[in-house]
Structures are given as structure tokens and as C-alpha cells.
Design a protein that fits this description.
By secondary structure, this protein is α+β, with helices and mostly antiparallel strands. The protein has two domains: about 1-55, no CATH class; about 70-108. Helices cover about 35% and strands about 10% of the residues. It has helices at about 30-45, 60-65, 95-105; strands at about 5, 50, 70-75, 80-85. Strands 1-2 form a two-stranded parallel ribbon. The chain is globular and about 35 Å long. Keywords: Oxidoreductase, Selenocysteine, Thyroid hormones biosynthesis.
Length: about 110
């Protein structure tokens, strides 16, 4: 199982919301890597995190249109086992947790 870090949906220089988001939209791959590393440290994140590279025109974003609020779980067979679809601008975090739990069980 992996995670993919994509564009900042609410970068402070584009579409800021509240005060929790404190990053400008990355301009280079290294900017995105720095932000991802900050997240990994702050959240003690343990799932491998891939970067959607700016240098290649954000290929994951181009193919899957993963935002504003989309979550995909990719199973050990490298297939989407879960695709979250928002309902009225939101969705159940429990559904995402369940999909992740199932993917983790499959990997063991």
C-alpha cells in the first residue's frame, strides 16, 4: 500500500482556508518533497508516500483527477480497491478507514 502526495488544494497563495494550511503551491519536485517530509514527521506517518512529480506535469493528477476530495486505496495487486466519492461535499471517514484496514490485512 502506498500514498500519493499531489497538488496542494488549499495552498496559501492560491485558495487559502483557515490557518492550518501554511504552504504555498510547490513550484519544484523538491518543494513537494519537503512538504511531504514535514507531514511524515508531524503525523508519524508510516505508509510509503509517493510524490506526484511537478517535473512530469503531475501525471497522477492528470490521469485520476484526485481532488478536491478523492481518496483511492490501491491493493497489493496494484488495483484500485476503493475509490471515495463525495456526497454533498463530504464522505464517511469510516469508509476510508475500513478500506485501508482491509488493504493492510491483505498485505500481511
Amino acid at each position: 500500500m502506498v500514498t500519493v502526495y499531489i497538488e496542494e488544494a488549499h495552498a496559501v497563495d492560491e485558495w487559502p482556508i483557515g490557518s492550518r494550511i501554511c504552504y504555498t503551491q510547490p513550484k519544484r519536485d523538491n518543494d513537494r518533497i519537503r512538504i511531504a517530509n514535514d507531514f511524515i514527521k508531524a503525523a508519524d506517518y508510516r505508509i510509503p508516500l509517493l510524490i506526484d512529480p511537478l517535473s512530469k506535469n503531475n501525471p497522477f493528477s492528470q490521469v485520476y483527477s484526485p481532488w478536491p476530495i478523492r481518496f483511492y486505496v490501491i491493493d497489493r495487486m496494484k488495483k484500485f480497491s476503493y475509490i471515495a466519492q463525495p456526497i454533498q461535499g463530504s464522505f464517511s471517514l469510516q469508509s476510508i478507514k475500513n478500506a485501508l484496514d482491509e488493504a493492510i490485512r491483505e498485505c500481511k
